[in-house]
Design a protein that fits this description.
Layout (H helix, E strand, L loop, with lengths): L21 H5 L3 E5 L5 E5 L4 H8 L5 H8 L23 E2 L10 E2 L1 H11 L3 H25 L6 H8 L19 H6 L14 H19 L2 H10 L1 H12 L7 H5 L11 H13 L16 E7 L5 H8 L3 H7 L14 E5 L4 H7 L9 E2 L3
Antiparallel strand pairs: 1-2, 3-4, 5-6, 5-7
Helix pairs in contact: 3-6, 4-12, 5-8, 6-12, 8-9, 9-10, 13-14
Length: 369
């Protein structure tokens, strides 16, 4: 998420970043893709030639689509090639299938990203799906409590691959890819020792507050997602120019689709494609997923300047366990001169508190349902 510029995940940011050149392979007249039985099948281009060829030159979208293209532009480098049918809402149809609480449509670009996620991106997609086990219960519970669509989970999946350590070339960080200014605006600390954009719990609260604000402005989750990606003022301006009002329905996204920045045009299609696969993984060839354990922890207020490795030793666990629970403590210690709540494995709260002579402990936080 950023304001009026593309966000590209750094290739060094864990395995979330997908290799460059994905778009080039997608242009081949026949591409190998994984089938539900784990094999491969060669298939001709399913999508309309004009739509696919023109759309591919647009590049992939923003921080999310940099996951798919390693931060590269479209293979031809022709960033401003017009899309077939520009200026017109694409021909979309209601999708029937698994239950959604977001509006969902059929569109060529949704099909394209399904094919990519289950094809060349298969291993990365599998990792993202398995991370749902860890973070989806927390995110969807927060969405549910706010009365928001739980399918907005797929927005953060395409933003970061559910990697709290994801970092972009545009300096966006965390599950929700906040830039520093927007993170601070929504209450996240970004300092030398603490970067709460990387805190999966606090950043989720901030991101959902921002999305709620966007929805109150646009009355559409599609438009809100576009605003989250490219900046709300740009979306508002385009809506006023095309429809005479910032407020609209999800069809409004398609009405301004051709005028959105190239990195934003595929944002909603990719989100929908990710949702289709996450809801029916076996259908798309993702069998025997090993979902990660749900995020669960307890908190202990620890004196300033304490190394996380010392806390791990006190808890009797490997340092990586405590590092993983506290990705926002970027120096792997509490800030000097300032006590701070640190997450420890469930069942270790009292033990850690006693060893650090702490009397202020937080209640247990098991975030899975």
């Amino acid at each position: 998420m950023k304001q009026d510029q593309g966000t590209n995940l750094d290739k060094s940011a864990d395995e979330s970043t997908v290799e460059a050149g994905a778009a080039t392979s997608a242009r081949k007249k026949s591409a190998e893709r994984r089938t539900p039985n784990g094999g491969t099948a060669t298939r001709g281009r399913k999508l309309k030639d004009a739509v696919r060829d023109n759309a591919m030159t647009l590049g992939l979208a923003a921080s999310s689509l940099a996951l798919l293209a390693g931060g590269t532009r479209g293979p031809s480098g022709a960033a401003e090639v017009a899309v077939a049918g520009a200026g017109e809402a694409p021909d979309v149809a209601e999708k029937k299938g698994p239950t959604w609480d977001l509006h969902v449509t059929d569109h060529d670009r949704v099909e394209f990203f399904k094919e990519f996620l289950m094809g060349r991106n298969y291993e990365k997609t599998r990792t993202w799906l398995e991370r749902q086990g860890k973070y989806a219960p927390m995110i969807q519970n927060e969405l549910r409590e706010r009365g928001m669509p739980e399918d907005l989970l797929y927005l953060t999946m395409i933003e970061s691959g559910l990697n709290p350590n994801a970092y972009s070339k545009a300096d966006a960080a965390g599950l929700w890819q906040f830039i520093e200014e927007t993170g601070e605006r929504y209450g996240l600390e970004v300092s030398t020792y603490v970067d709460e954009r990387r805190d999966p719990v606090k950043s989720t609260g901030a991101a959902l507050s921002y999305l709620q604000k966007l929805h109150s402005r646009f009355d559409s989750w599609y438009l809100s997602a576009a605003g989250y990606n490219t900046g709300e003022n740009r979306v508002g301006r385009l809506m006023r120019e095309r429809t005479g009002s910032e407020k609209g329905s999800d069809t409004g996204y398609w009405e301004i689709w051709d005028k959105l920045p190239k990195e934003t045009r595929d944002y909603v299609p990719l989100m929908l494609a990710m949702g289709h696969i996450a809801k029916e993984p076996e259908k798309y060839g993702f069998k025997d997923l090993k979902y990660e354990e749900p995020l669960a922890y307890e908190e202990v207020t620890i004196p300033g300047g304490t190394k996380l490795s010392e806390i791990a030793a006190a808890a009797g666990v490997d340092s990586e366990v405590v590092f993983d629970l506290n990705p926002h403590l970027v120096k792997k210690q509490t800030p000097p001169g300032r006590a701070m709540a640190v997450r420890v494995p469930v069942g270790q709260q009292q033990k850690v508190a006693a060893l650090f002579q702490v009397t202020d402990t937080r209640s247990s936080s098991a975030l899975a349902e």
